[in-house]
Backbone:
């Protein structure tokens, strides 16, 4: 019979576990060759203490993935801010240069205006005819006037272009300024969100640590079980093969919150590390990974596919065939081979 201390430590997990189960998305039944999901009930050799510990750990893993997703979002907003800031600087430089050109060509146009009206001389061929002393004088003056007219038109055209360029640069600067401010505001909100999520995770980990103290030596041995020796898995392509091999090479490595290798991992840390060894960069959190690559139906799973669990997604593993996956389950556990869990929610192919 389970002792009262164990029940007191883990009783708070039951209500939350029921909520998680209520929102779980299950896949419609198909004529799939993939074996049925693992049963919800724990194996007969799993103690109540270990079962409840794993429930608490699953909740902590969800909080951890929420925390990682918020950090991913903050990185994206910081990238937006950096881009907007660079665009703003470039636009401001373009605006300054356009303003200089505008002032220069405006002075050039003003010179022609002064020559035409301030001095009283009309820049046209009739004026040249009336003021000339001979036909040759008229031709010479006409030629000079044509040059002056061309220069005047050129100056006007350049002035118009400089004005247009200055206006465009002004609009670009205003747009970059607005984007930069939006990114700053969103980053500030995300920073506060990250702090809140980190506190929730720390509180859950403290409760998990108390539950860990109630586990028996047999419970701890069950957590260290890797699910068997490394199997010979044949993936459909070289990148998927490299990722599968990399993940399987880490059987027995400890689960650590937020770890991404090479010796310790959390669930999405293992999958992102494995695909990095294959030369493919995927998002860091399981939730972001669940939107990456190409969706795959359950009856089309191939070794190397990412498989996801819970709704919203908070766990991920790498499919290795035969209805099994390699994954980093949760705190106190190790990287191991397991059947696909009952809370399966989808799969993505990235190679």
Residues:
């Amino acid at each position: 019979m389970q002792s009262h201390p164990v029940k007191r430590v883990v009783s708070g997990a039951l209500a939350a576990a029921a909520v998680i189960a209520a929102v779980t998305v299950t896949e419609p039944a198909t004529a799939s060759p993939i074996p049925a999901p693992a049963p919800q009930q724990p194996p007969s050799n799993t103690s109540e203490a270990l079962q409840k510990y794993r429930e608490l750990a699953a909740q902590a893993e969800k909080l951890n993935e929420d925390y990682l997703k918020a950090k991913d979002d903050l990185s994206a907003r910081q990238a937006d801010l950096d881009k907007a800031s660079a665009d703003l600087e470039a636009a401001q430089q373009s605006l300054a240069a356009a303003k200089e050109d505008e002032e220069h060509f405006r002075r050039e146009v003003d010179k022609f205006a002064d020559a035409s009206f301030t001095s009283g001389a009309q820049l046209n061929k009739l004026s040249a005819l009336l003021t000339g002393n001979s036909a040759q004088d008229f031709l010479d003056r006409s030629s000079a006037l044509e040059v002056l007219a061309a220069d005047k038109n050129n100056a006007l055209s350049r002035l118009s272009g400089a004005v247009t360029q200055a206006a465009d640069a002004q609009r670009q600067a205003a747009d970059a300024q607005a984007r930069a401010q939006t990114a700053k505001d969103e980053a500030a909100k995300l920073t506060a969100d990250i702090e809140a999520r980190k506190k929730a995770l720390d509180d859950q980990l403290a409760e998990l640590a108390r539950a860990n103290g109630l586990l028996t030596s047999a419970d701890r041995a069950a957590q260290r079980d890797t699910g068997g020796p490394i199997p010979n898995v044949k993936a459909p392509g070289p990148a998927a093969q490299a990722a599968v091999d990399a993940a399987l090479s880490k059987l027995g490595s400890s689960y650590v919150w937020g770890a991404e290798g090479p010796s310790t991992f959390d669930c999405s840390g293992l999958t992102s590390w494995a695909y990095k060894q294959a030369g493919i960069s995927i998002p860091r959190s399981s939730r972001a990974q669940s939107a990456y690559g190409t969706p795959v139906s359950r009856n089309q799973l191939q070794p190397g596919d990412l498989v996801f669990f819970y709704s919203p997604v908070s766990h991920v593993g790498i499919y290795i065939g035969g209805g099994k996956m390699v994954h980093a389950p949760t705190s106190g556990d190790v990287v191991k081979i397991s059947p696909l869990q009952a809370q399966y929610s989808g799969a993505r192919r990235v190679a």
